[in-house]
Amino acid sequence: MARTRPERRRLPGIQLPDWTSSHRVGVAMIVAATVVTVAVAASGPSAVTLKLGRRDNFLPPWYVPVNWISLGEWVVVPALWAMLVIGSLGLWISWRAVNAGWRPNPRKLFALGTGLSIASSLIPPLTSADVLMYAAYGRLQVLGFNPYDITPAEKFRELFDPVLIWTERPWQDTPSVYGPLATWSQWLASKLGGENMHDTVFWLQMFTLVSFLIAAAIAVKLAHGDPKLQTRAVLFTVMNPLMLWGVLVGAHNEALSVVFAIAGLWFYRKHPFVAGIGIGLAGTVKVSMVFYGLAMVWGLRRDPRRLAQLCAGAAVPLVLAYGVWMPNALLAAQRNTGYISPGTWAISWLTLLKTVLDDVTARQIVAVTGWVLLVVLAWMLSRVLPWRLVPGDPDNEDPRLDPLTIAVRTTVVLCSAWLIASPWAFSWYDLITWMPLGLLWASRLDMIMMWRGAWLSVAWVTGRALQFGDQMHFVEKILREQVNVAAQIGVLVAIVWWWWSWGHELPKLPRISFHTASSPAQTGATRAD
Predict the structure, then answer these.
(1) Which residues pair with 126 in a beta bridge?
(2) Cα–Cα distances in Å, from 41 out to 44, 51, 80, 238, 425?
(3) Around Cβ 116, how many Cβ atoms within 10 Å?
(4) Which range is least confidently modeled, 10-14, 174-178, 244-248, 342-346?
(5) Which of 264, 504, 287, 269 is nearest to 389 (CA)?
(6) Helix/strand/coil for 8
(7) Which residue(s) pair with 49 in the sheet?
């Protein structure tokens, strides 16, 4: 029999004002946040808006001509800080409204979110210059070079190039760390954009937008028949200001990987081979999608035939991409594993270790700590995250026996644990958790992800490698390396406290019995999870 959760003593709740659960207030704040973002980006190049070079046509991204408006850093940066506060609060209020019974028409809400998504993709990218590096890697391929071996800086230092010259530090001297399919998309964008960074960025933005919308639509479709889950799925994807900001405004390629993984989940119940192809394609964009693959394997662990079909499907794109097409891509992706972000828990641990150890040893210990922490957090989340049957299986009413429900829940567990434990973290990485999270029952993890994403987003508004003024530099360091780090450590504490207050169940070693008499395991009284 499945164990029941222990009784918990509830603390007296805090009575919040009615407007904190009003869907009108929440949606209005999300829309307002998008309007502020568009206004800042449309004002043209600034301390937060990327410079994309010349414009030869009417293609987006659109902004007013250079020198028409010149906004200083103390205008655009605080405006984006305020935008993120407004948007995050709007997301939280809308989430409370859903829990209080708000059930809008999912198609209309999705249409509104689609409009916000499109608006966020027709403006110049903000704060992160990663998209310029995507364009640079594509340009290198068009010029006949391998982006896994040659860096953009090696070429633009030798001769002038109209695309490579617009890249920004700090990644100009870094070879590509992306999978073969991501690299191919960068080549295609460069071919379509020609010798123009502005046009190349447009195509990269469109790849991100289309992938994001398709993935969100599939997530909402997976929730069909359950109005609450559909609303959650819309809210956590196209209506999520943290993802509109992190993924679309920055044109990051997380959406390109997630769309194949979510498509894999769509085919998971009836066509495991096709589902395997989906997760395999996702892995050819970013290797971090391995967590989706592990979750799918876990969901089919009791069905060897379908599990074999899943693995066979996944092997097709993975072998072709990493074994035949670009064999050096897998080794290149390992470069990401040694990075430590100044906005995570790891920076404090690294600083402490470096007082007694050399830099290399300290970084190795931090990396090992991250992996250990991942396992610990995954266990804790697996004990406390609620079960909710993903709609669509009329023959099964027990979520603990439904392969898709197991896969979705395990995906959330593994991806959340990895995001929170990783020494290298940015807000746009969180898309891999937000997409399937909407298919689960409301829990504390929803608020934890909002808290985490809001602070990471605020911390990296000044993420470009520019020389800000002394006062702004002081404020950004306080926000990123002190306030934000404290917030991320708070995320760790929140999960530990959640697990502890729900019974702090520890792993148990399997019992080995040498008796021939019947046992609970033989009678079928095994725990379903």
Answers:
(1) 49
(2) 6, 11, 10, 20, 24
(3) 23
(4) 10-14
(5) 269
(6) coil
(7) 126
Count of alpha carbons within 13 angstroms of residue 501, beta-carbon side: 12
Is the CB of residue 196 less than 8 Å from the CB of residue 163?
yes
Q: How far apart are CA 335 and CA 337, in angstroms?
A: 6
* Residue 61 near residue 125 (C-beta atoms within 8 A): yes
- The CA–CA distances, whole Å, from 265 to 270, 311, 433 equal 10, 14, 14
DSSP 8-state assignment for residue 479: I
* Token pair 């669509």 in the structure block, residue: 392
- The predicted structure's pLDDT at residue 156: 80
The confidence band for 526, taking pLDDT boundaries of 50, 70 and 90, is very low
pTM over 0.70: yes
Q: How many H-runs (helices) and E-runs (strands) does the chain carry?
A: 21, 0
Distance CA 326, CA 329 (A): 6
Residue for token pair 């207050």: 501
Q: What is the DSSP track for 180-229? A: HHHHHHHHHHHHHH-S-HHHHHHHHHHHHHHHHHHHHHHHHHHTTT-HHH
Q: What share of the chain is helix, strand, coil (3-state, %, to 5)?
A: 65, 0, 35
Separation CA 207–CA 204 (nearest Å): 5
Alpha carbon separation from 20 to 113, 197, 230 (Å, rounded): 21, 43, 21
pLDDT digits (tens, 9 = 90+) for 120-162: 999 999 999 999 999 999 999 999 999 998 888 888 888 888 9
Ramachandran category for residue 251: left, alpha or beta (phi over 0 → left; psi -120 to 50 → alpha): left
Cα separation, 465 vs 47, in Å, equals 10
The terminus-to-terminus CA distance of the chain in angstroms comes to: 10
Structure-token pair, residue 116: 């916000």
Q: How many residues does the chain have?
A: 529
- For 184, the token pair is 């191919």
From 97, 88, 91, 89, select the one nearest 23 (Cα to Cα).
97
| C-alpha dihedral sign at 46, 52, 54, 60 | negative
- pLDDT per position as a tens digit, 492-514: 999 999 999 998 899 886 664 43
The helix (run of H) or strand (run of E) holding residue 492 is: helix 484-501
9-13 CB contacts, 8 Å cutoff, 24+ apart: none
Least confident range from 66-70, 127-131, 270-274: namely 66-70
Contact (CB, 8 A) for 249 and 123: yes
**Residue type present at position 409:** R
CA distances from 66 to 45, 46, 55, 63, 79 (A): 7, 10, 11, 8, 20
* Range list of β-strands (E), 252-392: none
Sequence letter at residue 9:
R
SS3 396: coil
Exposed (0-12), middle (13-18) or buried (19+): which is 110, by Cβ within 10 Å?
buried
Q: What is the DSSP string of 364-378?
A: HHHHHHHHHHHHHHH
